[in-house]
Amino acid sequence: MTMQHIDLKEIHSGGYVGKKVAVCGWVRTSRDSKNVAFVELNDGSELSHMQIVFDKAVFDDKMLAPLLALGAALKVEGTVERGMKDESVEIRAESAELLGGSDTTYPLQKKRHTMEFLRTIPHLRVRTNTFNAVFRVRSELSYAIHEFFHKNGYYYVHSPIITGSDCEGAGEVFKVTTIGYNPEIKSEEEYNKNDFFGRSAGLTVSGQLEGEVMATALGKIYTFGPTFRAENSNTPRHAAEFWQVEPEVAFADIDDIIGIATDMIKSIIAHLLEHCAPELKFFDERFENGLIAKLRHVVESDFARIDYTDAIEVLKKSGKQFVYPVEWGLDLQTEHERYLTDEYFKKPVFVVNYPRKIKSFYMKQNADGKTVAATDLLVPGVGEIIGCSEREADYDKLLKEIKDRGMKLSDYANYLDLRKFGTVPHSGFGLGLERMLMYVTGMANIRDVIEFPRTKDDLK
Ligand code: 4AD
Ligand code: MG
User: Any idea what DSSP says for residue 38?
Assistant: First the structure.
């Protein structure tokens, strides 16, 4: 293997002092002095860099110039030595190969760039410490989610990306079509009939409806994939394309699913505390002071729980001037959610039993006739990260709800069948992966936890 080399992380893990190694990476910073030059090399295997020392007796200035260019890709062979600081190591270069040169037009020159600027270069920003850390945590978080469900006996199922139904009924579905502009087409009906599927189709907003199908045979399932919403809101926490984790559990009521959601959140945070320590420390220092203490507290303490009706009272008595009105029957806005979590409870809180009218058609109707067995998990700093409910298992109630909401019955015929044949109490939730990432990294904008953010008027 010509490119044979060792990950920098492996060398940092110890036991290499005095040994000859070959390493590869990109130049993050460089420094030139009279007799030696230094390069901080990063190969993506960990957050920290490896210092490479170039002795000018071996490398003359002409050889060195391209090797010191920020952004250049190098392969270096040399000996691992003890560095200046305790326990640090560095590599004294004996030979070096320029794999890919760079020049002064490289956008990541030595200075602290704003997040806004970095968003304009999504193809390069991952080469900064911040984004390197974000995407390492994103990978580890995804793994932790799979691990949690796998070890608890769930099946990982794949729900379709192209669907014919609007699960949330919020009218935020992106249309999927192969027909371009055609003034000959006289009606929407005609348009749909001539389209690829012979009917209207869109990108899924949620894998839940298909997840329910799978759960009513496999018992415990989860989906984990991209979902899409044509949300017109330009906020720091809404993306048009985001990843969702959606477990669906047969023979589980609302209290059961709240327990499962709690266990999952604690389990994945504990995993990150153990496996992403350097990254979390970095975020604690640079983005959210106290982040690690906050995460530890989440793992160790109970989550709060409050009825929607009581939450409205808390908000009314808060003495706060909210922009949006607080009234029973109205949805909670971000400012209300933030007050409840950031100021009132100061920890994650499940708000339970929302008014039926402001929630989705599939939620189990409570005996009071006004509310549904639904809950949102709100967390400090971010707001809603989970939408959760027990599903309506009664055929007649569900049918009436679909009709009352003016939904197209034929789109939900199979879904209704689940209530006709062996219906069972079942529950599930959706965790927004990016929202969770914002919570665990302290990143304030959803655009900075997904490598290629898609938001209103922005697709790079
Ligand atoms: O609350 P939501 O709309 O719930 C559902 O879609 C259910 N079908 C889930 C289920 O029960 N299987 O969305 C779930 C979560 C939200 O709590 C939020 O974390 C995230 O998905 N989310 C978004 N994240 C980023 N950008 C958006 N536009 C989002 N919309 C929802
Ligand atoms: Mg929601």
Answer: E
Cα–Cα distance between 193 and 373 in angstroms, integer? 38
Q: Which atom of ligand 1 is nearest to the CA of 435?
A: 19
Q: Whose CA is nearest to atom 6 of ligand 1?
A: 206
Q: Taking CA 385 as the corner, what is the angle to CA 381 and CA 388, rounded to the nearest 5 degrees?
A: 145
Question: Mean pLDDT across the stretch 258-280?
Answer: 98
* 383 Cβ below 6 A of ligand 1: no
| Complete edge-to-edge strand list for the sheet that includes strand 371-379 | 155-156, 220-228, 241-250, 426-432, 383-390, 371-379, 349-355, 304-307
**377: closest CA among 262, 252, 292?**
262
Classify burial at 381, counting beta carbons within 10 Å of its beta carbon; exposed 0-12, middle 13-18, buried 19 or more. middle
Tokens of 411: 């789109």
pLDDT higher than 90, residue 137: yes
User: Distance between CA atoms of 250 and 221, rounded to whole angstroms?
Assistant: 9
208 lines ligand 1 (CB under 6 A): yes
For ligand 2, the distance from its centroid to the CA atom of residue 20, given in whole angstroms, is 55
Q: Is 289 helix (H, G, I), strand (E, B) or coil?
A: coil
pLDDT (tens digit, 9 = 90+) per residue, 37-77? Answer: 999 999 999 999 999 999 999 999 999 999 999 999 999 99
pLDDT at position 1 = 39
d(CA 288, CA 298): 15
Q: Determine if ligand 1 sits within 6 Å of the CB of residue 455.
A: no
Running DSSP on this structure, what letter comes out for residue 363?
A: B
204 lines ligand 1 (CB under 6 A): no
What is the average pLDDT across 275-285? Answer: 98
- State the distance from the centre of ligand 1 to the C-alpha of 115, rounded, in angstroms: 25
Please say if the pLDDT value at position 261 is more than 80.
Answer: yes
The CA distance from 11 to 13, in Å, is 5
Q: Is 428 in the pocket of ligand 1 (CB under 6 A)?
A: yes
- Residues 6 or more apart whose CB falls under 8 angstroms from that of 428 comprise 208, 211, 212, 215, 246, 247, 248, 249, 257, 388, 389, 391
Say how far residue 165 (Cα) sits from the centre of its chain.
24
Determine if ligand 1 sits within 6 Å of the CB of residue 427.
no
